[in-house]
Design a protein that fits this description.
Layout lengths: L1 H47 L3 H8 L3 H5 L36 E8 L5 E9 L3 H12 L5 E4 L8 E6 L2 E7 L9 E9 L37 H10 L9 H9 L5 E2 L6 E2 L13 H15 L29 H9 L24 H8 L1 H4 L8 H8 L9 H11 L6 H6 L13 H7 L2 E4 L2 E4 H9 L4
Helix pairs in contact: 9-12, 11-12
């Protein structure tokens, strides 16, 4: 009985719920239908109104765009700028052009393939522009450069200098970049050695060279300048194995006849127009011979700076270099001058020279720098050398050699290490030196305030004696 009553009530409750849900559904349907009718009426009213045409035209697409559609394309890329913080000098860069020591090459451009070649180098430096101008004015004022034009001392401009068949233009801008750095450019061009440095008329009245070959009467050629012809011949004859950066140094010294080598068949010295086997490791005795010869040739007119050769009566300073040694007078002379360490300057009495041992980098600098500074070498330590040069292997350098290496740094762009090895953060003090590298170290003697090069010596020899 109870179950029957409960079932009836449950059915009644379910029915009421269904009725309520149906009523809600009907109400929502009526609301939606009303909204749809209102919207339809509004659209119909707009369509029938006089303003409907104007509204339609205002919202329609532009007919011009339909006839000539606009094609969107990405903007053109900016012009390429061939600049780089790791720009490198051209492989045939003339070594006689001085380079400002505190400058970074940021761009190489111009015509580099055909001849005559014109190359433009753009540099950046943290130094003021007047320091750059003073440097090039001083450098071009010596070493056989001829200044064609130069800016005033008060205002930077363009400096033009020539040397043989090489023309160099240094463009100095008075503007300074944000951050304190300045920019300058070096343009250089190298003409053929057969072309005179300045144009001459066809009916030139200059006298022909006595040694010149006879030419037809209608020939318009002129005899090359005496200073340009020997140099060009030397460069063209150089062994192709000589590194490009060292060729001019070797050419000048070979012309001075100081790079003498000894034949393996006999003890006689031989002089060649080029350096035989330029990449062969040079011995200590060979470099000692070249060192004395180059110093005495370059300072031929200054007896006070020449190294005196030892005589037979001298007591040998080295136990392994007797008086019968073919290079005794040279090696003994360096020892007696105090240029190289020997029993004459050391506490020990048994110092060996090891004449046939390979010459190392640190030994080359230790022997050469005293002939540049002509004074006592400064005190030095590993930290000092590392701070100045930035050598990662400074701890491997001998304590005596470190003094010469530090003094070499103070010589700026004329430092032997820069001239021979270029930029490097590894000195490799125990590495053997080649003949070409040794020759490059002997090209210049002196410091920044005064010195002479092999080119200066050649120029002096070419001048007639009074």
């Amino acid at each position: 009985m109870l179950n029957t009553i409960f079932t009836q009530r449950q059915r009644k409750s379910i029915g009421q719920a269904k009725t309520s849900k149906t009523n809600k559904t009907n109400i929502l349907f009526g609301v939606k239908t009303g909204l749809a009718l209102c919207l339809l009426a509004a659209v119909t009213a707009c369509a029938n109104s006089p303003n409907s045409k104007a509204l339609e035209e205002s919202l329609a697409a532009d007919p011009k765009l339909q006839q000539n559609p606009v094609v969107l394309s990405p903007p053109p890329p900016p012009p390429a700028v061939e600049t780089s913080t790791t720009a490198k000098l051209p492989p045939d860069f003339p070594t006689e052009i001085p380079l400002y020591p505190n400058a970074q090459l940021i761009e190489v451009g111009g015509q580099t393939d055909p001849s005559p070649k014109t190359v433009r180098l753009r540099w950046e430096s943290t130094d003021p522009i007047n320091s750059v101008q003073n440097f090039y004015t001083k450098e071009f004022g010596r070493s056989n450069w001829q200044i064609v034009s130069s800016p005033s001392a008060d205002e930077p401009g363009t400096l033009v200098a020539t040397r043989d068949n090489l023309r160099v233009t240094v463009s100095l801008s008075p503007t300074q970049k944000v951050g304190g750095s300045t920019e300058f450019a070096i343009n250089y061009s190298k003409e053929s050695s057969e072309i005179a440095s300045s144009p001459q008329p066809n009916n030139s009245e200059s006298s022909p060279s006595p040694t010149a070959s006879p030419t037809p009467s209608n020939s318009e050629e002129t005899t090359p300048a005496p200073s340009a012809s020997p140099k060009s011949a030397k460069v063209s004859e150089l062994d192709s194995q000589i590194p490009q950066q060292l060729r001019q140094y070797v050419a000048d010294l070979a012309q001075l006849e100081v790079l003498k080598v000894r034949s393996t068949e006999n003890a006689n010295l031989e002089t060649n127009s080029t350096l035989p086997k330029p990449n062969k490791i040079i011995t200590r005795r060979e470099y000692a011979r070249w060192l004395v010869a180059a110093n005495n040739q370059i300072y031929a007119s200054r007896q006070g700076k020449q190294i005196r050769l030892a005589v037979d009566s001298s007591e040998p300073a080295f136990s392994d270099v007797s008086k019968t040694d073919p290079d005794f007078s040279v090696i003994q002379g360096l020892a007696e001058a105090g240029v190289i360490l020997s029993s004459l300057s050391a506490d020990t009495k048994d110092v060996k020279f090891r004449p046939d041992a390979p010459l190392t980098r640190e030994t080359m600098i230790l022997w050469k720098v005293p002939l540049d500074t002509r004074q006592i070498l400064p005190t030095a330590n590993i930290d000092g050398v590392k701070e100045k040069w930035g050598f990662q292997d400074a701890s491997k350098i001998d304590s005596q050699a470190s003094r010469a290496i530090l003094a070499d740094f103070n010589n700026g762009d004329l430092a032997n290490i820069r001239r021979v090895f270029g930029f490097t953060t590894l000195f490799q003090p125990k590495k053997s030196v080649t003949r070409a590298e040794a020759a490059a170290s002997l090209w210049y003697f002196g410091v920044q305030d005064g010195g002479l090069s092999a080119k200066d010596a050649l120029q002096a020899k070419s001048q007639p004696t009074q």
